[in-house]
Amino acid sequence: MLILDAQIHVWKASTPERPWPADAIEPQRPMPLEVPEVTSELTRAGVFGALLLGPTWEGSRNDYVLAAAAAAPSRFGAICRWATGSPAEAERLADWRSIVGMRAIRMSLNRGDVLGALTAARRSGFFAAAERFGVPLSVYAPGRHDLYRDLAEEYPGLKIAVDHAAVETSDLPLAEAVAPLAGLAKYPNIAVKASALPCFLDLAAEARPYPSITEAVYRLVEAFGAERVFFGSDLSRLPVPYADLVDVFVSHLSGLSGAERALVCGRGVAGWLGWSEAFGE
């Protein structure tokens, strides 16, 4: 089975030559998660490849993830940061396919002036350009299901992946937390990353193989179809062993057919992004 992880943050330490922003938030762990460590984790867990994303605390940098994707295009793809409020940067999207290894753009809308960021992206022409030039977006806007709905309706040709199933806390049982996403399934331009799910569990009350994750994935597949639900880890903050999470998707989704599991585990996200190199093409 082709297994692809839909999101892993990678970053390097802040140095005078490559400094982080002065107002950087605390990273998810003290030691940077770099590509060699990710490669080892993938190999041990039987995962073929991953989509890499620079974290917000490193700033709007793409150099590290793009270098990794360019060096191993069948194994790594880059989800890039973009100046979405800049008209000039919106125009640059016309040539995005020439950026080797780039697969999508991430918008982090989980803190700060979310409404202002959306307004700026509309005014700059970013959303319209992304739709016109076929740039997939990965958007993290936990709990803001109306935001996803509005974008899907306004830009019906724009592919939008809902990062981390739009969940941010463990306040609700996981299956209940993902349930509102079913209302978005009618929009064919919306997909869901079933990523970082162990982060939203009460791990004191639930052990491997984490049946809440299985139940949540079933709900998502029932609503969206397996081709629009993507396995992902968010490895840098994962509170369980990586191989254990992979095992949930490989061995504990017996309610799905083999073809459906293959889509959820990697073929779906590769098809969604047009990542033909992952198929050896």
From TrEMBL:
Amidohydrolase-related domain ranges (all copies): 5-266
Organism whose genome encodes this protein: Streptomyces shenzhenensis
Protein name (record): Amidohydrolase-related domain-containing protein
Annotated TM spans: none
UniProt-listed InterPro entries: Amidohydro-rel (IPR006680), Metal_Hydrolase (IPR032466)
Superkingdom: Bacteria
MF-aspect GO terms: hydrolase activity
